[in-house]
Each structure stands twice: as structure tokens, then as C-alpha cells.
Design a protein that fits this description.
The complex is a heterotrimer.
Chain A lengths: L1 H41 L2 E5 L2 E4 L3 H8 L1 H33 L5 H9 L6 H12 L5 H6 L12 H26 L3 H9 L4 H29 L3 H6 L7 H4 L2 H11 L3 H29 L5
Antiparallel strand pairs in A: 1-2
Helix pairs in contact in A: 1-13, 2-13, 3-7, 3-9, 4-7, 7-9, 9-13, 12-13
Chain B lengths: L1 H20 L8 E7 L5 H14 L3 E7 L2 H13 L6 E4 L1 H9 L17 H5 L2 H7 L9 E2 L1 E10 H7 L10 H15 L2 E4 L4 H11 L17 H12 L9 H7 L1 H6 L3 E7 L3 H7 L7 E4 L21 E4 L2 E3 L7 H11 L2 H9 L4 E2 L9 H5 L8 H6 L3 E3 L6 H17 L4 H22 L1
Helix pairs in contact in B: 2-15, 7-8, 9-10, 18-19
Chain C lengths: L2 H38 L3 H4 L14 H9 L2 H32 L5 H13 L6 H10 L6 H5 L6 H12 L3 H9 L4 H9 L4 H17 L2 H6 L8 H11 L4 H21 L1 H9 L5
Helix pairs in contact in C: 1-14, 3-14, 4-8, 4-11, 5-8, 8-11, 9-10, 11-15, 13-14
Classes of the chains: A mainly alpha, B alpha/beta, C mainly alpha.
């Protein structure tokens, strides 16, 4: 008797569970998961035009792996991650620690660092293009250089990384600051009495204590950087001599699928990109055991 | 505060309902959508539609402007889901792709009840080429035609004591004038930016080369005439009087000319009226001339006995989907768009040079408003030796790849000769693939 | 010199260094905005002069006039408000429901369904554009606000984040309500949901900022500039006249203004809300 009643309430709970997740799951499946499954399928097809496909097996992948532009774009994406993730997070942590010190106008500084977050990326890309302009740009004038930031094959991707870091540093810093503020002050006091210097405190207390927050920031930043597209779309141009050296994987996808209409090939690029993202994420989750401390 | 938020929510909800229901207006009229990509031509298109709906009060036509970057992505996606706009502009580059796939309505017989041979009698051969599918049927009604001209700054020519470009100008004269102007004024001469229709195409053909052979199956970037022309055109960026591609990418050729930092650049006929409107301070300081001719063509194809003259001409057309819901009514609208009356309306609005033979001059009207400050005649005269822009059914596939290689050539990462070979191979491969597939 | 004064001196030095670093950092962060404002008042020739001039010779409004001619700003503002509002409402309602269910209820298939949420977060959004456009076209919603809102009806990030929040609420609270005779939905709606205020605020801000910055989708799904959002309108400016810098900067400023003003008013809520999205 009791048993049946329990299972009836359990069944009710189950129904409620399904009902509550239904809108989200149906939405995600229709809007995102199904298109992605189709993308996987079309990566094995040739696009004949207007959504008609012919199965060609691994040809797209073979063509892709043979194409130097593809490897270039993969490297550009990885390079972009190297430029934005470690450097970006280190800078964000530095800013967070500065803000965590007992300073006046903390709110004001925080407001300023966070400001780019609320600005439309389109506007951000535009103003930086003006600043980076190789001929009349203010940056060259301040630095006393004559670098074609956006069209030089060596600096183009660095320029994009600077803009990306500039616009995300406030967000990362705010997250890290929240982590820093949760650290128990007594830990520092205790280690001071033990005679530990600031630097040792940083490595022995600060870093381990905020490592969980660092980990979230790292995962988010890494995913965003692997998928970078908007900034490159806004900052570059088809006739940019540095195009091959600044296009990311997702930008290459856009040009293959949307501009050239080669959707099968474009889909293969997407599958590769998603595989890379998953791989990197898995490595991170596996690696976190080595450096992320969840409790002290 | 809570009440205010709730009130706001209610207002927004109503607004959403209205915006959703707005599209299914049930006034008993036929609502048609007409999709174009050029904001500057919106008024001209609207005038034409108004003229039609005045005679057909049961039809409403909504002109929508989509920017060029998204136009083709959307049109293709719409074609796949059978939700194409009722009427839309079609471009030469894309027409074969759409037509060969059966996406466009065949309008060959549209005027059979009006006049046999209507198309042949009233439109040029290039215009007909622009509307023909691979099967030789017509998939659109010709809209306009264009070509590129040399725009120049009179003040800079005067300051350097150089005579204005005339009909006999060759590319050698152009480089010479550029050098003189640069030496005398410090401004750039000719802006040889990377572009096809507004760049190297014309000189390739003038010089006896070709981008695509007459049957559109073979590419000629690396043939003698083409190669020499490309080397010359790309090489201009090495001259001190011409900025390099880094500069053009960041600053734009047009903006450089209009901010009076250069003496010459090539511009399309379709942009001239907009330039007059946008740069009132330049009125009277600039003019246009025919493109220079090749000084010493490698060879002259039989079709071109014009001693090194050529210009590239393109034209758009009005098309409709093959499976549209209102096909009969839409065809009637298209039929009207191809009449002398409609083409005159388009011409007078300044939107573009009408394709209908004999109505071209109506385009002048728009310039008279500004006191006829530029030599529009040279555009009309250039049509005498215009060449249809090169394209084939594989164009959408090879265009961006060719541009990629060419960009590398301009960047200096690729030798010109090797780059041209590579570009030729890309076009030939994609074309062969397309031909094999059909 | 005794020990306290030397530590006092090192304390002052540290302070000076901290302030110096903060001020330099803030200057770098502010500079692009400053440059945007200055450039928007320049003439086109001034904006490209070599060497660059810092201040405009006079505060000219030509850039603003030109951008107002080219873009229907009132409509863009209104469309953006509608888009942000509906995206936020959808994200909060559906993500709260799902987040609660994933955190507190037992049902078969829960782990598999939650995996869908996680997978979605790692997919690049550009690949959905064509399929989603076709769905909207079939529904007849092209060129409407509903079409704009469409892909944002559900939010994987919202679900993920709110699930974390609900997991942080002790089970006893829900059980007490259940014993009082509430069913699962009432427990969620009347008892649990009101406890998630801070997180809902965070999701609101997050969703709003992203809906506002989205630039591809509005350009694809809506045909007419009158149906665009601020970001999409701004992106089309670039195509019109690539290099009229004062006009581009004036447009950027006008497009940024509403969000920046909102941010300055609610900065505390903004920053603290976003700080909560980092997870613990």
C-alpha cells in the first residue's frame, strides 16, 4: 500500500520534471541539436545546391586535411587562444588583485574595467579599427611606429586578440574578484605570523583558493576563443592581404559555407572545430585535478 | 516600480502581437514582396511599383532592402524552403546557379502576346546574356546596365599642369599623369585597388586576354594577354603614386578620392549619383572620363576590333521563384517592369541606366538636378564596346577562391605568375566539376 | 630606522604602485571610448589626417547628421528594446523551470537531457543560422519581432546557471512546502523561484547584453533596416561607406548609449549579477 503510494508520487514528480524541462529540451533540440546532427551528416556530403546533397564519404575531410589554408586557420585559432586565454586571464587576475587591495574609488575603477562588456561588439570593432589604422591611426602615433596592424600578416591576429582581451578583461576580473573576496582573511594573517612573504602567500593561498573560479573563467574564455568569429568578421575584409593569417576556423567556415556555397566542406570544418573544443575541454576537466583545489 | 514593470510588459506584449499579426493583413489585396540590395535605388523601385499599383489597386508591393552581404545567403535559404520573395533582383554571377537548378520562373514567353521577339527588339545582347539560363531560356526581365569609368579630380590635374584624360588616353598616359600629379601635388595618382569589375578585368580584355573563354569553359588569367595585363595592374601598387593594398583595405579607395587625397580612381556608373549627393563640397571639382585603352594589345580578339578599347558591363534583372504562390500576378508585374514606361521611371529616378534600348538617356534627368556637372556621355559611349562581365555556372564557387589567391599576390606572399597559374587552375577545376555534375 | 617605519614605507610604495597600475589600466580601458567621442566630432579629412590630430578643430555634428540620415535610430532602439525584453522573459521563465527540474526533481532521462544542455553550449552559433532562418521562414515570421526573438526562446546557459542556483537551495525548504500541500509546480513557483532573485537578475543582464550585441541573426532574419536592432544596423553602416570614420563613430556612440546609461545607473547590480555567473 505504502509502496504504491510512493511510486504514484514519484510518478507525479517525474511528470512534473518532464513538463518543466520540456520547453527547454524541445527548443534546444529543434533549434540547435538537430541542425548540428544535420551538420555532421552534411560533412560527408557534397552540396549540389539549394540544400541538395550527395553522399561522398570522407572526401571533404581528405580535402580539408590537404588544404594548407585549413591548417593555417587551425593554427590561427590555437594562436588566438594562446594570446587571449593565458595572457587574458593573467591580466584579469592582476586587475582583480589590484581591485581587491584596499583602494579608494574601487567602484569607479570596477565600472571602468567592466564597461566594454556592455558595448555592442560591432561598435567596439569599429573604434579599434580607427585606432589601429596603419596610416592615420593614433596607436602608431603614440608608439612612434608605422605598423599596419590590421593588414600585416604578423600583427593582424594580435590586433584581434588585443581587442578581444580588452573587451573581456573586465568580465573575467569581476568573476575573479568575487573569488578573491571569498578567501578567508585569517589564512593570510596566519601565514604572515609564520613569516611568509607576499609572493609566497600568492602561490600558497591566493592561487589555490581561487582556482575553482579560475577554472570556470578558463573554460568559458577557451570556448569563446575557439569559436571566435564576430570580431574577425567586423575587423577584416575580403581584400585584406592578411586574411589568410587572421581567419579563424569559424571564419573559414563562414567563407566556405556562406560565401562560396560549399556547405559540405564548411560542415567538415565545424565538426573539426567542435571536436577540438570538446578535446580541449576534456583535457581541462582532466587536468583540473592537478591544480584546482576545491577545499582546503 | 512593480506596477510600472508590469505595465511595460503589457505594452510590449501588445506590440509583439501587433507586429506578428501585421504580416497577415487581410484586406483582400494581394501583397507582394520585392527584394533588392541597393538602398540608393529604393525610391526608383518604389516609383515603379506605385505606377503599377495605380493601375492595379488590388495589388500591394512592399520594397525591402537587404544588404549585399546577406542577400545571397538569405535568398538561397529562402529558395530551399520555398519562401522566396515574390520579386527580387538577380545578379549575373548567380543567375545560372539558380536557373539551372529550376529555382527561377521561365519568363521567355512573357511578351508573346505583345510583340514577337520583344526581348531581342528592345534589349542589347549583353542584357539578354544576363538573363539566359544554360538552356537558352530567359529567367528574368532585364533591369539595367552599367559600366566603369575613370573619375578624376580636376583641381589636381590643373595644379600639376596635366591635361584632363581624353578619348585617346592609354594606361601609359594614366601612369605618366599619376607620376606628374604626385610629383607636383604630393597627392596619389590613380588608385589601383584590388577589384575585378572596377579593377583589372577591363585591361585584361583590352589587352587581348580573357578571364573566361567565349564558351565560358576555360580560364585565361595565365594567357599572354591576361598575364601582361595582370602584371601591369598589380604592379601599379609598387609605384610611389599609388598606395598599396594595406592602405586600400583600411581606408578605401572611394574615401581617399573624395577626401581629396588622390587624383583618379575607377568607379561604377551606379555610384555616381550617390557621389554627387554625398559630396556636395566636391561639386564642379571632379569629372568622369572613358577608361584608358591598352597601349599595345598582345592580340585583338575578332569580337574586339576596337584598338585596345573595352569596358566591362553588367546588368541586373527582375526575377521570381518558379514555385511562387502568386505566380500569375507576379508575372504581370514583371511584364510591366520590362516595358518602356517602367524603364523610363527607373531611369528618371537616377536608380540605374535602364536596359530598354532607347531609354538610356532618361538617366540623365537625375544629373540635371545638379546642373549636369559630369560628362555622362562617356558612359553611354562606352556601351559601344562593352563586354559582358565574365561568369559561368561555377562562378559562386570560384570567385572567393580566386580572390584569396589574388590577395596573397597583392600581399607579396605569392609570385604573380604562380598566382595566375593557380587562379586559372581554380576556375578550370570548379568549372569542370560543375559541368561534370550537370 | 626602526622596523615599523620601513614597513610603513613599503606599505606606501605598494599603495602608490597599486594606484599607478589601476590608473594606467583605467586609461587604457577608457581611451577607445574617448577616441570614439573625439572622432565623432571631426571632419572626415581630420579623422584621417597624418599625423592624427587629437582634438577636433571644432565640434561638428556632421557625423551625427549623416548617421541619422542613414539609420532609422528610433526604430532600431524600439526593436532592440522589444528583442531584449522578450529574450529575457523567455530565458528567465524557461530556464528557471528547467533549472529547477534538473536540480530538484527525479525523472528518467535526466542525465541524458542535461547532456543536451551541455553540448549546446559548446556549439558555435553560426551553424544554426541557415536552419533557423528556414524554420522562421516556414512559420511566416521573417521580418517580424517574433522572428528576431526566435533562436533565443531557450537558453542553455540560463538552464546551466540556474540549475547551480537551485542546487544551492536546501532540499528541506521544498519538502516543507510539499508537506503543506503544494504540488511540484506550486513549490517551484511560490517557494523556490522567489529565492533565486539574484541569479535571475544575473541571467537578465547576461541575456540582455548578448541579445543586444547579436549581429548576424537580425541581419539574416529581418529584411529591412527598419526591422533591425542597433547592432545589426551598425554592421550595415560599414557596408555603406567603409571609411567615413566620424559617421561610424557617431553611429557607434548612439548605438551604445542606452546600454551604457543603463549600466551606469544599475552598475552595482550589473557587476554583482555578472560576478554570480562564475559559479563556485
Amino acid at each position: 500500500m505504502k509502496n504504491r503510494k510512493l511510486s504514484a508520487s514519484a510518478r507525479r514528480e517525474e511528470n512534473w520534471g518532464w513538463l518543466l524541462v520540456a520547453p527547454t529540451i524541445i527548443g534546444l533540440f529543434v533549434l540547435n541539436i538537430w541542425p548540428f546532427i544535420q551538420t555532421i551528416y552534411t560533412s560527408f556530403c557534397e552540396h549540389l545546391g539549394f540544400g541538395h546533397y550527395r553522399f561522398i564519404g570522407l572526401d571533404n575531410y581528405i580535402e580539408m586535411f590537404r588544404n594548407p589554408d585549413f591548417w593555417k586557420a587551425t593554427w590561427n585559432t590555437v594562436y588566438f587562444c594562446i594570446l587571449t586565454v593565458p595572457v587574458g586571464i593573467a591580466l584579469a587576475l592582476f586587475v582583480a588583485m589590484l581591485l581587491n587591495a584596499k583602494v579608494k574609488f574601487k567602484g569607479g575603477f570596477r565600472t571602468i574595467f567592466f564597461l566594454p562588456m556592455v558595448c555592442a561588439p560591432a561598435a567596439i570593432a569599429m573604434v579599434w579599427q580607427v585606432i589601429f589604422n596603419g596610416d592615420s591611426g593614433i596607436l602608431n602615433q603614440i608608439l612612434g611606429t608605422h605598423i599596419q596592424w590590421i593588414t600585416n600578416s604578423k600583427t593582424a591576429i594580435i590586433a584581434v586578440a588585443i581587442v578581444s582581451t580588452w573587451s573581456s578583461i573586465g568580465y573575467d576580473a569581476v568573476l575573479l574578484l568575487a573569488g578573491l573576496q571569498n578567501i578567508n582573511k585569517q589564512l593570510y594573517e596566519a601565514s604572515s605570523i609564520d613569516g611568509a612573504g607576499k609572493i609566497r602567500q600568492f602561490f600558497n593561498i591566493t592561487l589555490p583558493m581561487i582556482s575553482p573560479t579560475m577554472f570556470s573563467v578558463l573554460i568559458m574564455r577557451l570556448m569563446a576563443s575557439m569559436k571566435v568569429y564576430d570580431l574577425i568578421y567586423m575587423m577584416s575584409d575580403d581584400t585584406n592581404p592578411a586574411m589568410a593569417d587572421m581567419q579563424s576556423l569559424m571564419y573559414l567556415f563562414y567563407r566556405s559555407s556562406f560565401v562560396a556555397g560549399d556547405r559540405g566542406y564548411g560542415s567538415a570544418i565545424v565538426v573539426w572545430t567542435v571536436a577540438l573544443i570538446l578535446l580541449v575541454t576534456l583535457i581541462q576537466f582532466w587536468g583540473q585535478k592537478k591544480w584546482v583545489t576545491y577545499d582546503i | 516600480m512593480k506596477k510600472f514593470l508590469r505595465g511595460m510588459a503589457a505594452v510590449l506584449l501588445v506590440a509583439l502581437m501587433l507586429s506578428v499579426s501585421g504580416c497577415g493583413a487581410s484586406d483582400g489585396k494581394t501583397h507582394l514582396t520585392f527584394q533588392i540590395w541597393d538602398t540608393n535605388q529604393r525610391q526608383g523601385m518604389q516609383d515603379m511599383c506605385d505606377a503599377y499599383t495605380a493601375q492595379h489597386p488590388d495589388v500591394v508591393i512592399d520594397v525591402q532592402v537587404v544588404s549585399w552581404n546577406e542577400y545571397w545567403t538569405k535568398l538561397e535559404a529562402a529558395a530551399e524552403s520555398n519562401t522566396m520573395p515574390d520579386i527580387f533582383w538577380m545578379h549575373t554571377n548567380q543567375l545560372l546557379y539558380y536557373a539551372d537548378f529550376g529555382m527561377l520562373a521561365d519568363v521567355t514567353d512573357l511578351y508573346d502576346d505583345v510583340e514577337p521577339g520583344y526581348y531581342q527588339n528592345h534589349f542589347s545582347e549583353i542584357s539578354l546574356g544576363n538573363i539566359s539560363g544554360s538552356d537558352g531560356r530567359y529567367y528574368g526581365v532585364p533591369k539595367d546596365k552599367d559600366n566603369g569609368v575613370l573619375v578624376y579630380n580636376k583641381e589636381m590635374f590643373d595644379a600639376a599642369g596635366v591635361a584632363y584624360p581624353d578619348d585617346d588616353w592609354t594606361w601609359d598616359d594614366l601612369t605618366e599623369a599619376s607620376q606628374k600629379i604626385y610629383d607636383a601635388t604630393g597627392n596619389y595618382g590613380y588608385l589601383a585597388y584590388l577589384d575585378d569589375q572596377l579593377g583589372y578585368w577591363a585591361y585584361v580584355y583590352q589587352n587581348g586576354g580573357y578571364i573566361l573563354s567565349a564558351d565560358r569553359t576555360a580560364c585565361g588569367f595565365n594567357q599572354p594577354g591576361g598575364k601582361e595585363a595582370m602584371e601591369f595592374y598589380i604592379g601599379m601598387q609598387q609605384e610611389e603614386w599609388c598606395p598599396d593594398q594595406n592602405f586600400f583595405t583600411q581606408n578605401g579607395a572611394g574615401a581617399t578620392f573624395w577626401s581629396q587625397r588622390a587624383a583618379m580612381f575607377m568607379e561604377g556608373s551606379w555610384s555616381l549619383l550617390g557621389a554627387l549627393k554625398d559630396h556636395p563640397e566636391m561639386l564642379g571639382k571632379w569629372d568622369i572620363a572613358k577608361l584608358p585603352k591598352a597601349p599595345d594589345p598582345v592580340s585583338t580578339p575578332e569580337s574586339l576590333d576596337q584598338d585596345g578599347r573595352a569596358c566591362m558591363s553588367n546588368g541586373l534583372c527582375y526575377s521570381t521563384g518558379a514555385h511562387g504562390k502568386n505566380l500569375e500576378i507576379v508575372k504581370d508585374v514583371l511584364k510591366y517592369f520590362g516595358t518602356e514606361e517602367a524603364q523610363l521611371i527607373q531611369g528618371r529616378s537616377g536608380a540605374a541606366i535602364p536596359a530598354y534600348l532607347g531609354t538610356e538617356e532618361s538617366w540623365r534627368t537625375a544629373f540635371e538636378e545638379y546642373g549636369d556637372p559630369i560628362n555622362v556621355d562617356c558612359i553611354f559611349e562606352q556601351f559601344d564596346y562593352a563586354i559582358q562581365v565574365p561568369y559561368n555556372s561555377a562562378s559562386p564557387r570560384w570567385k572567393s577562391q580566386v580572390l584569396d589567391v589574388l590577395t596573397q599576390v597583392y600581399a607579396g606572399n605569392q609570385e604573380v605568375d604562380a598566382g595566375l597559374d593557380k587562379m586559372t587552375e581554380i576556375v578550370n577545376t570548379e568549372t569542370a566539376k560543375k559541368l561534370a555534375g550537370n | 630606522m626602526n622596523k615599523t617605519s620601513s614597513s610603513r614605507r613599503s606599505y606606501v610604495t605598494t599603495k602608490v604602485l597599486v594606484y599607478a597600475a589601476l590608473i594606467i589600466g583605467a586609461a587604457i580601458m577608457i581611451f577607445p571610448f574617448l577616441w570614439m567621442v573625439l572622432t565623432s566630432f571631426k571632419t572626415q579629412a581630420e579623422s584621417v589626417s597624418i599625423p592624427a590630430t587629437f582634438f577636433p578643430s571644432a565640434f561638428r555634428l556632421d557625423g551625427y547628421k549623416k548617421v541619422l540620415e542613414n539609420l532609422p535610430f528610433v526604430k532600431l532602439y524600439w526593436n532592440t528594446i522589444l528583442l531584449v525584453f522578450f529574450r529575457v522573459v523567455c530565458a528567465v521563465v524557461f530556464s528557471s523551470m528547467a533549472g529547477y527540474a534538473f536540480a530538484k526533481l527525479k525523472f528518467r532521462g535526466k542525465n541524458l537531457l542535461f547532456t543536451i544542455v551541455l553540448v549546446q553550449m559548446s556549439l558555435p552559433s553560426q551553424i544554426f543560422i541557415i536552419p533557423q532562418y528556414q524554420m522562421v521562414a516556414k512559420l511566416g515570421l521573417v521580418n517580424t519581432i517574433a522572428g528576431l526573438v526566435f533562436p533565443g526562446i531557450v537558453s542553455a546557459f540560463g538552464v546551466f546557471f540556474l540549475r547551480q542556483t537551485y542546487m544551492g537551495i536546501p532540499n528541506e525548504i521544498g519538502e516543507a512546502a510539499y508537506l503543506d500541500g503544494c504540488n511540484q509546480f506550486q513549490t517551484f513557483y511560490k517557494v523556490m523561484f522567489p529565492l533565486t532573485g539574484t541569479s535571475v537578475a544575473a541571467i537578465t543582464i547576461f541575456t540582455a547584453v548578448f541579445a543586444y550585441g547579436d549581429l548576424m541573426w537580425p541581419q539574416i532574419v529581418n529584411n529591412d533596416i527598419n526591422m533591425f536592432t542597433l547592432s545589426a544596423g551598425l554592421a550595415t553602416l560599414r557596408g555603406m561607406d567603409t571609411t567615413n570614420f566620424p559617421m561610424l563613430m557617431a553611429g557607434s556612440l548612439l548605438a551604445m548609449l542606452p546600454m551604457v546609461v543603463l549600466y551606469l545607473i544599475f552598475q552595482k547590480q550589473f557587476v554583482e549579477g555578472i560576478a554570480g555567473t562564475g559559479g563556485k
